[in-house]
Amino acid sequence: MYKALLVDDERLIREGISAIVDWASLNIRIDTAASGIEAWEKITGDVPDIVITDIKMPGMNGLELIDKVKNHYPTIYFVILSAYGEFDFANKAMKYGIKHYILKPCNEDEILDVMKNVINDIENQREVEFILSRVNKDNIPKKDIAIQDIDRYITNYKNTSSLVKDALKIIAYNIGNEQFSLTYLAEQVLYVNPDYLGKLFKKEVGENFSYFLARIRIEQAKKIMLSEPNASINDIARRAGFGNNPQYFSQVFKKFTNMTPSEYKKPMKTS
């Protein structure tokens, strides 16, 4: 069962939302808090999966609560309760990766729709955490060259934030996925704004995302050539994340190495 905390300084709103929604149908146990300060006390005592919070509250407003909670409990999901005229505050919440909003006044169906999306996000994140748990050299299959290189990627960028470290791990896991992109990584996996992730990645890694991804895909292609000299260009392109487009792969390969894949492979075949 998921634990959710509803935070609003207006008693009628707290009681109304608590009462009108069939929380049990969502497998959610709901609790309430009348202020950001009370919410913080409850969160530290029994960490919830989800916090639904108003923005304008005395003492500690919603943004201050989000900031404090994210620093201590980064896995908690937030839903913003926003009234007309509070969009500036709601937009500021985007920097924390929050994408779910309930506009007051609201009805049961609107709340149910948002909460179902939040639960879906939680399940997706748990799947990602399972994938990341595989990013342990003791559990990595020997044949999986890309994943074996994850420790090296992280070591090279050890001074990056936890968000960028997670991004690097997931990139390494997805080198062979031709559909992988910054937008997919940000929106579907890490649940942050793509522009924010792109700027942070460039700042901390020193390369923009698309260039970095292309470069490590070419590194992957070169490793395949070294370990499997008889592998075809088509097969190498596919396994390095270029799909069924060997011509594009060759163009990118030459951009990074000043050689075509065939020229690069030639000494290996004759050795």
Automatic annotation (TrEMBL):
Biological process according to GO: phosphorelay signal transduction system
Transmembrane segments: none
Biological role stated in the UniProt entry: May play the central regulatory role in sporulation. It may be an element of the effector pathway responsible for the activation of sporulation genes in response to nutritional stress. Spo0A may act in concert with spo0H (a sigma factor) to control the expression of some genes that are critical to the sporulation process.
4-aspartylphosphate modification, residue list: 54
Signal peptide: none
Naturally occurring in which organism (per UniProt): Mahella australiensis (strain DSM 15567 / CIP 107919 / 50-1 BON)
Domain HTH araC/xylS-type: start-end pairs: 165-267
GO MF entries: DNA-binding transcription factor activity; sequence-specific DNA binding
A Pfam family per the record: Response_reg
Main subcellular location of this protein, as a coarse class: cytoplasm
Domain Response regulatory: 3-119
UniProt entry keywords in alphabetical sequence: Cytoplasm, DNA-binding, Phosphoprotein, Transcription, Transcription regulation, Two-component regulatory system
Cell compartment(s), UniProt: Cytoplasm
InterPro entries found in the cross-reference section: CheY-like_superfamily, Homeodomain-like_sf, HptR, HTH_AraC, Sig_transdc_resp-reg_receiver
UniProt cross-references to SMART domains, sorted A to Z: HTH_ARAC, REC
Entry's Gene Ontology cellular component terms: cytoplasm
Protein name in UniProt: Stage 0 sporulation protein A homolog
